[in-house]
Write a structure and sequence with these properties.
Structural class: alpha+beta
Shape: globular
Number of strands: 38
Distance between the termini: 41 Å
Number of helices: 13
Length: 697
Amino acid sequence: MPISLHNSLFILETDRTAYAFGLNQAGLLAHSYWGERLPFLDDYPVPPNPGAWGPFNNPSQLTPEEYPGYEDMKYVEPCLKVTQADGVRDISPRFEGCEIDGDTLRITLRDGVYPLRVTLHYRVIAAYDLIERWATLTNDGAVPMTIERAFSAQWHLPTGDHYRLTHLHGRWFDEMHIERTALAHGVTVLESRRLTSSHHHHPWFALDDGRADEEQGAVWFGLLDWSGNWKLAAEVTDFASTRVSIGVNDWDFAWRLGAGEVFTTPRSLAGFTRGGFGAASRTMHDYVREQVLPHPRVVHPVYYNSWEATLFDVNFESQARLARLAAQLGAEMFMIDDGWYKGRFSQSSGLGDWMPDPHKFPDGLERLIAYVRELGMEFGLWFEPEMVNPDSDLYRAHPEWVIRYPTREPRLGRDALHLNLARADVQAYLIDALDHMLSRYDIRYANWDMNRNVSEPGWQDAPGEPRELWIRYVDGLYHVWDSIRRKHPQVIWQSCSGGGGRIDLGMLRMSDLIWISDNSGAPDRLGIQAGYSLMFPATTMQAWVTDQQRDVPFRFRFHAAMCGMLGVGADITRWSAAEMEEARDLIAEYKTIRPLVQFGDLYRLRPADQQGFTAVQYMSKDQREGVLLAFRTFVGQHEPSLTLRLRGLIPGALYRVEGCDGVRSGAAWMNLDLQFGLYGGLGNYSSTLRRITMIDS
């Protein structure tokens, strides 16, 4: 049984880990254990019953509650804050009952005075060693109340105040830097206030005791399944208690919970491993590939995107020329980016009018799509559904559909305004517009872009509390996207938000692929891709070869993009015959390793951040074959050459590594330093791709 009720404890067990909590003597739901699965139920510790610490810290302050409310003499971060109709801002959720339903546990808490019912949901995902948590708040009374904070979960670490936080930070064009920081006493806050999960931080975390590395060490990790404003509060108390609260951001947030209404938080997912950061990543990779993605076993094509070649100068002739060249390279999907729709001659016009421009495509898109199909490629199309230009038919017809304050002049971002996807009429318009395009045309791939953050977050005719916009917008986004997916399940969606502006688990439930950065310069991408790989698998990561940093060798640029789902986004009309031939050979080589990259286990052999050398390895699930990609970025003339030890091999099996002499055991390859020729005559920005093959004895 994944869930047991034993000696006042709720014990949640996965294949290898366990999570336990229960009612303590004060009647509080207290956390007691999160770590390796123990042999017997009696092994798990009872819920803690701390005493007071002098006159200023009573027992409720010291208790590691599973879902603390704002009440009593508690001065830790609460999960829940509610204002009642009479102005009382105190909430006291106490245990009322529980229900176990297979892999799901539901705990009911109720306030003793006010009619608020809190249900804590726990789902055991045993095969992936993950626990999923969320909460529902129900108003069982006759008058409304206002929710001011409702986190999804508070995750407690074993007793101690020596933990290190790993998270990702950055900015547009420079995303996903890996940062590891010792947690100080107090509260460390990471958040987004941008209506997206943002380029700057990501709703993901990992904690360790400062000694974990890629291969070993206890790591607790988790994330929030949400694509809007979020908040993470990592707190270290003065009583050696460390916890991470995560959920929707309470900044500028309020939710009017009417009589009989229910508010459901996003879900938080977390796990534990003793295999270091590498094992934590592989756990998430497997879960995302097998349980989250809309098309989990699709082998994604090598694609070509025409944006950098033509910008807004899109018509049949320009696209047909590029399609011919892309087919010669071995591309399998051709995508038109921005510029194909009505009135789109620059970034200041046309957004919102989702139909082919009659001047650019007087006969619609059928002719071009047929031509692309004749060349042996699938056809893809770019959309930016959430935005509208003031210079568009849509805005002229419905200026009330944008997010704004009526007394303020709205600020443009990329010459556009936000459509208010919290509105049902906006949702219906987008569903109809996208459904019409996908029904009329044979479009197999679609890119959903979003190129600005919110400003003036007003909703002048909101049916309730205007600050509900932050939640209702994201719910509306999910509704539109999910409705289109159900109508057109054959379409593979790609998500972009100025690159890495909306990378989260919620997006991956809608789209199979993520454009992780507008920076496609290969040396920079190695670090960006490494940060992304902490959370999500390579099969979701679009990677282009472009004309950025043309001084970087062709092979290096391709090898960097081969670490994900390979695409080409360069102006290939400018490539020489020699470059075309080299690209054709590299694309053909990628197709032979694509199943390993997409479905295999990833090992980060050398870190990419501020290192002269970096390397990644992918191994098939049966450990019979793999591929190594190693890079030299920039090192001084007298630096030593790259040495590596492989990972993920069967110790007693025999393997050959391409370019290395001899056949050795997996144990030997994983314990002997291998030297690679990324030094000397090859110089900086050199790279190599080596196959790893098991030899049957």
